[in-house]
Amino acid sequence: MTPPTAGTRGDLFDPDCPTRRLLDRIGTKWTSMAVKVLAEADPHEIRFAELRRRMPGVSQKMLSTTLQGMVLDGLVARRVEPTVPPRVHYRLTGLGLSLEEPLAVVRAWAEEHMAEIDRARERGRV
Predict the structure, then answer these.
(1) What are the tens digits of pLDDT across the range 113-124?
(2) Is the torsion defined by CA of 24, 30, 94, 40 positive or negative?
(3) CB 6 within 8 A of CB 71
(4) Considering all CA atoms of the chain, what is the largest pairwise distance in Å, rounded to the nearest integer?
(5) Three-state DSSP class for 66?
(6) Which of 52, 83, 95, 118 has its CA 20 to 30 A from that of 42?
(7) How far from 30 is each of 2, 25, 46, CA to CA, in Å?
(8) Residue 24 forms beta bridges with which residues?
(9) Which one, of 10, 90, 21, lies nearest residue 50 by Cα?
């Protein structure tokens, strides 16, 4: 499949469609948490250490990897202050902000239904 161009839609059911890779990236818990924290700070920036503090359980490496991917995808803007050590700041782009609402719906659904899911998994254990 030829990758979709600007203004066209992908086809999730086409195995070669880049939409699948994008969903893999934006569907992680760390991306969802980072989007939430950065959206709450908008229009202000947040430094790496503060992001990590607000995302319990995330390792430095995982947060760094997540943010690098989000920057590459155009969801997050990164600004480095040339200090020693460098101060790195992050904020959502307009595209990143547009992702907050759908991710918020998914997070709310997960929080509301987690107990049901746990019960179903317990019943289904072999």
Answers:
(1) 999 999 999 998
(2) positive
(3) no
(4) 56
(5) helix
(6) 83
(7) 30, 10, 16
(8) none
(9) 90
